Amino acid sequence: MNILYLCHRIPYPPDKGDKIRSYHHIKYLSQHHAIYLACLIDDPDDWRYVDPLRSMCRNVEVVGRKGFQEWWRIGKAFLVGQPLSLGAFFVSALQEKVNVILDRESIDRIVIFSSPMAEYVKHVSSIPKIIDFVDMDSEKWRAYAQMKSFPLSLLYRAEADRLGQYELEMATTCQESLVISQEETHVLRKRSNQRVLPKVIPNGVDSEYFSLAPGVQRTKSIIVFTAAMDYFPNIDGAVFFCQKILPRIHQAIPHAQFFIVGRNPVSALRRIAERMPQVQVTGTVPDVRPYLSEAMVAVAPLRIARGVQNKILEAMAMELPVVGTTSAFQGLAVATEHGIRIADDPGEFADAVVKLLGHPERARACGRSARQFVTAHYDWSNILQEFEQILEEVTV
Fold first, then answer.
1. Cβ contacts of residue 189 below 8 Å, gap of 6+?
2. What confidence tens digit (pLDDT) does each residue in 309-327 have?
3. CA 310, 263, 285: angle at the middle one, nearest 5?
4. Pairwise pLDDT comparison (33 vs 78), residue with the higher score
5. Would you kindly state where each structural domain of the chain is located, as residue ranges?
6. CATH number of 222-377
7. What span, in angstroms and rounded, lies between the C-alpha atoms of 158 and 181?
8. For 2-204+380-393, which CATH superfamily applies?
């Protein structure tokens, strides 16, 4: 098949949530189909990654979206009652490139990755369209509204309502809707009065890449949190852990260290590290595996979360027990026997971490159970076969 694949951010390198998912889609599908990729770039450093994608795709069209024009589009969207997300991700130059692909090539399927990208093919009715919502972004904005004060709370609530309506419209016009977890299906089914029945395609993990090297011995009381540290839910989770949970851990294990591993850490996190010497903020690293190999416990202290967290799957694949909140685990069909601990109260969260750090053999046993679980249920190879089957069977 010839597949037009639209995504809001260049799907390479696979170093953050949405990029990991779209990258594995494209990598897998390119083995059997011709991929025509059209995407946006929001980080100037990402232009160097266009060529690696050309080796996987028949054609790659990329347009940058930063600058004054983006803010103009966002402001215009607000004034006309559209979701701000449409203004942020709709660039006329990319629309022109998409139109050329549709005119010149015999496209068999269109994959829309993230709801705002549907605008580029809204006019297309003769080609089956599959929209991958991943998470329901409207619900993310609704959660932001609850965390922020006026006037941001009002703005975010308006965006949640507008984007929610747009998501519903796209779900009813596309031939298939995909989401990342059962929780997301409930949102879309309720919103559509059961008219939309989305299919669940969860995130996965490359269990060969994320595997613990033979002979590694975890002996240090190191806690790790891996995430993009310029993303509000991750920032909020890291600050919450440092302020409310880590001091309780230090009462029991004073030498415990906390590593925050991820790109573009905000100044608030660096200031915390300056005040708390046992907190290390690494910034961008070429490979998170050495940090996952050295740590004894991984944490996911997220108070805002949607879907399946890649950071949890990667830690579990590396034989790490994971302590996280209910929100962090909501997209995973996982339980305590799979090597994880769920806690929302800071005291209970700290206690779960302390029990693992204080009993390394218990931590290792939980880590082995964690890897067994994710390799059996969340390996990309099985998930992507189901994704490909959906593309092959869909019709207009």
1. 196, 197, 198
2. 999 999 999 999 999 999 9
3. 90
4. 33
5. 2-204+380-393, 222-377
6. 3.40.50.2000
7. 25
8. Glycogen Phosphorylase B; (3.40.50.2000)
User: Within 13 Å, how many C-alpha atoms sit on residue 231's CB side?
Assistant: 16
The token pair at 46 is: 């990402």
Residue at token pair 């965390």? 147
Query: Mapping DSSP to helix (H, G, I), strand (E, B) and coil, where does residue 185 land?
Result: helix
What would the two tokens of residue 60 be? 């790659």
Burial of 273 (0-12, 13-18, 19+ CB in 10 A): middle
Q: Do the domains 2-204+380-393 and 222-377 sit in the same CATH topology, yes or no?
A: yes
DSSP 379: B
Give the C-alpha separation, 51 to 181, whole Å. 32
The mean of the pLDDT values for the chain is 95
Residue at token pair 């059997």: 32
Q: How far is CA 390 from CA 155, 178, 287, in A?
A: 37, 10, 33
Q: Is the dihedral of CA 95, 96, 97, 103 positive or negative?
A: positive
The confidence band for 35, taking pLDDT boundaries of 50, 70 and 90, is very high
- pLDDT value at residue 12: 95
Please compute Rg for the chain using Cα positions: 21
* pTM, full prediction: 0.90
